[in-house]
Write a structure and sequence with these properties.
There is one protein chain. This protein is mainly α and about 375 residues long. It has one domain. The protein has 16 helices and five strands. It has a three-stranded antiparallel beta sheet with strand order 2-3-4, covered by helices on one side. A two-stranded antiparallel sheet has the order 1-5. Strand 3 and strand 4 form a beta hairpin. The protein is globular, with a radius of gyration of 21 Å.
């Protein structure tokens, strides 16, 4: 049985004040609470001082908050119309990085903008989600079932993923692919096609492994046996596990973490910030932080479910998945569950690009919430 449903959605022309009150302010407070956790952790990472990490974190969050609320007020239809223009700009930035990017720690990932070093791979994941949501939001079930219809969005995922992989940044490349896959799944792409894609990835894995940098291969072998090189490639994860275990149930106390303050814990202000929290506040503190992060993620999926138009649903799913993957990969990495990949904990780790792009994503999510009844026409056929 086929039927055609035309989405004629209510009220998109609400005034600025009406939109302002539609912003989920409790969610804004939740984000502020998570950022406050980051400030406390970075204050400790800086040796009990606001500089060099905590104060910058607060300033960046302040700018991010303004950006988020501004984006939340933008009509969702304008965002949808500019989706592919934004995607093209993101790809152009990745190409610019490949040609003239700043090199740091053996990777070419940043564009120097003076007060901010922009990492386009962070921004690209957000722009990719918007573009894919725009592609699928009017698609009928028949079109989604047509393999040729899926070729353009597959290429749209592959191009930035390959550019990010070449930086090299394997972790962000994989997250980019998985975020794109989440939008495909939410759009209704058949499961057998995912199975086929996973099979293709598995077949290509040996080729990818052969093209990895030496340090990336070392991360994989170290993950399997950290003790094989305790003072080299295995040092980071060994020290992280020591810090996690030494925190116990209640932790050693604020500013009392020995692994962090004696500089045994590497990258304590970025990749391993969660380990520092666990050492000083114990399992109770770590679980509290994870609960806050889970609430942030759950709200994203709730926004997707409440949207009355397909564009908002797909955008919400993609953005919530992106944040979930950041949290999952970072926590799994520092606990030794997956190889170390250099992925920050958003809103908590030190870093300008991650903060601003994360807040941009939340702004888009809030725009979906504010404009969930927007008049966006879409034809969708289904069984």
């Amino acid at each position: 049985m086929r039927f055609e449903r035309r989405l004629i959605l209510r009220d998109s022309g609400a005034g600025v004040l009406d939109k302002f009150w539609r912003i989920p302010w409790l969610y804004v407070l939740l984000l502020c609470a998570v950022a406050a956790v980051g400030y406390v952790a970075l204050y400790s990472a800086g040796g009990g001082a606001p500089e060099p990490y905590a104060q910058k974190h607060a300033i960046r969050f302040g700018f991010g908050l303004v950006l988020m609320l501004s984006v939340a007020m933008v009509d969702i239809r304008i965002i949808q119309r500019l989706a592919w223009l934004g995607y093209a700009a993101g790809v152009a930035l990745l190409v610019l990085v490949a040609m003239h990017g700043e090199v740091g720690k053996g990777a070419q990932r940043w564009i120097d903008l003076g007060p901010l070093q922009l990492q386009p791979s962070e921004l690209m994941k957000i722009l990719l989600v918007v573009a894919l949501a725009s592609w699928f939001h009017k698609a009928s079930w028949e079109r989604i079932g047509n393999p040729f219809f899926l070729i353009p969005p597959l290429v749209a995922i592959a191009v930035p993923a390959l550019l990010i992989f070449k930086q090299p940044n394997l972790g962000n490349a994989l997250i980019t692919i998985m975020v794109g896959g989440a939008v495909f799944f939410a759009a209704g792409v058949r499961l057998w096609k995912f199975a086929l894609a996973i099979g293709g990835v598995a077949a290509a894995a040996p080729i990818v492994y052969e093209n990895l940098k030496d340090y990336q291969r070392a991360r994989i072998t170290t993950f399997l046996d950290p003790e094989s090189d305790p003072l080299g490639a295995g040092y980071n994860i060994i020290q992280s596990k020591i810090a996690l275990g030494s925190g116990g149930l209640w932790g050693k106390g604020f500013l009392q973490g020995t692994q962090g303050h004696l500089n045994f814990l590497p990258e304590k202000q970025t990749d391993f910030i969660f380990t520092m929290i666990a050492e000083e506040f114990g399992m109770v503190g770590a679980l509290t932080v994870l609960t806050l992060l889970a609430m942030v993620i759950a709200f994203g999926f709730l926004v997707a479910l409440r949207s009355r138009h397909q564009f908002g649903r797909l955008l919400g799913v993609g953005l919530a998945t992106n944040y979930f993957l950041y949290v999952f990969v970072n926590v799994a990495m520092v606990t030794g569950s997956i190889p170390v990949g250099g992925v920050p904990l958003p809103l908590i780790s030190h870093g300008g690009s991650a903060m601003l792009t994360t807040m941009l994503g939340f702004g888009l999510l809030m725009s979906v919430q504010v404009h969930r009844d927007a008049e966006m026409e879409g034809v969708r056929d289904g069984p």
